[in-house]
């Protein structure tokens, strides 16, 4: 991709519009778009166009999406429109979670995507059983070494590891906020998504004498009764003896929310449908917020920059939370380690260099 060469044209294949309210797949695609300015990107845009939302660079293909959220009709549109657009680009870069419908799409790959080279960044795998019925789309990119091992064991062949990135200029390290500590959990309303474990951990820490406010920032999925699910969490918190609890819906301004937090909790039993390395965790570490995570294989990449507890163990997680809130020097140490880890392993320069090299390899 030299200065005098024609810029390669790359289709960013996502299940929902890049300017909509998509999940980890859309955010990863948007970061790739911003990281490689010498590529002519083609991406899906939301129609009708939302007011006041910045528009990414590149050539957009409108698809009908009333709310910008991934629904079945939107996924069908993306697949059909992508099949046409794939014939007009040099490379297809898919950002698709391996879920229930993905195995069928993978077997239709020659029909849908033609002969163009394909990069498939896998944000997450919903269930391990899906892997056995799936064919690789092309060169596969995992977000962590643990996911790469799973994909290679499922005969995905050429699997690379490119961790997600945090734009460090947009996520500056901030000092510890004053006042009553705020403990933040951010996740989905999934049965094993971690919210219940976070409440159990908070109850354990409160029983040990820790004083704090628990904030649950919950994002719904299509088809869920979000209001009822939020009320269930409030009732569970009350049953566990927690009084200072706020259950919020989808948060547009994560910068402000993380700036107000003291500790980030992410203790799910399994990662489920979330990104293999959740971007909220990276954003929290970049902001200088110590994190307590489940002891899942993909979180080993964080080393001693975070605290880890057995997956789904609310009691042990709560003990660590109470200890951390009582240790300001440990808080400072973890805040510094977290920021340094993000700078060294999840920075934009490394991200751009790795994807740029992969594009050049496949386009050669």
Question: How would you portray this structure in words?
Answer:
- By secondary structure, this protein is of the alpha/beta class.
- It has 2 domains: 9-165 and 347-363, Glycogen Phosphorylase B (Rossmann fold); 182-345, Glycogen Phosphorylase B (Rossmann fold), CATH 3.40.50.2000.
- The protein is built from 13 helices and 13 strands.
- The protein has helices spanning 24-35, 72-85, 102-107, 109-113, 129-132, 145-153, 195-207, 226-239, 254-260, 279-287, 314-325, 328-345, 348-363, and strands at residues 9-13, 40-47, 59-64, 91-95, 118-121, 139-142, 159-161, 182-188, 213-219, 245-248, 263-266, 291-294, 307-309.
- The strands form 2 sheets. Strands 3-2-1-4-5-6-7 form a 7-stranded parallel beta sheet, with helices on both faces. A 6-stranded parallel beta sheet has the order 10-9-8-11-12-13, with helices on both faces.
- Strand 6, helix 6 and strand 7 form a beta-alpha-beta unit.
- Helix 10 (279-287) packs across helix 12.
- The longest helix has 18 residues, at 328-345.
Number of helices: 13
Counting helices, strands and paired strands, the structural category is alpha/beta
Radius of gyration: 21 Å
Helix share bin: 25-40%
- The CATH class of the largest domain is identified as Alpha Beta
Number of domains: 2
The CATH topology of the largest domain comes to: Rossmann fold
CA-to-CA gap between the ends? 9 Å
Please report the total strand number as a whole number. 13
